[in-house]
Amino acid sequence: MGRTRTFDEADAARSALGVFWDHGFDGAAVPDLEQATGLSRSSIYHSFGSKRGLFDAAVTTYLDQVVRPRLAPLQAQHVASDALAGYLHGLRRVMADHALPLAAHGCLLLNTATSPIGADDALRDIVRDYRRELALAIARGVEAARPELDSEASACLGTACTAHVIAAMTLVRVDAEGAVALLDNALTLLTAPIAGAARASDDAAAHSSERGMAGRR
């Protein structure tokens, strides 16, 4: 009969997340992981298979408890018109607070993408999926905030906002002011006039005018 575990793997992954977020996969020493989780090396390996297995569990925790709660308003069935602005303002507040992990260390997944372990196929897929999830959420936020835009202009604005967010999360650990400035620019873009929207407005006005003239003939 196997020995009953006296710890929760989810709690262990949550505790390990802090170590990996601070130091990255390669910089996270097993003794530090033992201290953070309260588990022995043998317990870590028995439960997660390896340090890498514990890292994978920590990444899942990061996505489920850090990333997705912030994206939730942009992934709801009905996205509010101010949801994207709220997301950007929330990121701005977090990045301006140097005591918080995102400001101090940047995004765990983007850091992983540029580290040696980022060449791993499974992790590469996770980072790609994360980027797609972020881009889709932001695109829905743009559609809700700027319903007057045509599909091309909306897609361009969504891509620009996504690029600003990714750049800010990558830059923040070395240049918090620059990261905040990028988010401010994304907020400006979100409300700025766009050529595609202007053309659509002009076309609609011209069409309306033509119909009015036709009605008077």
Could you walk me through the main structural features you see in this protein, from its secondary elements to its overall organization?
With 217 residues, the protein is mainly alpha-helical. The chain is 78% helix and 0% strand. The chain is built from 11 helices and no strands. It has helices at 9-27, 30-37, 41-48, 51-75, 83-96, 101-105, 108-113, 121-145, 151-171, 176-191, 195-216. α8 crosses α9. The longest helix has 25 residues, at 51-75. The radius of gyration is 23 Å and the shape is elongated. The termini are far apart.
- What is the strand content? under 5%
**Main structural class:** mainly alpha
**DSSP helical segment count:** 11
Helix content: over 70%
- The coarse overall form would be elongated
Give the low-pLDDT segments.
196-217
Q: Summarize the main sheet.
A: none
User: What is the quaternary state of this protein?
Assistant: single chain
Number of beta strands: 0
Q: What is the rounded Rg?
A: 23 Å
Mean pLDDT: 88
Which H/E pattern describes the elements?
A: HHHHHHHHHHH
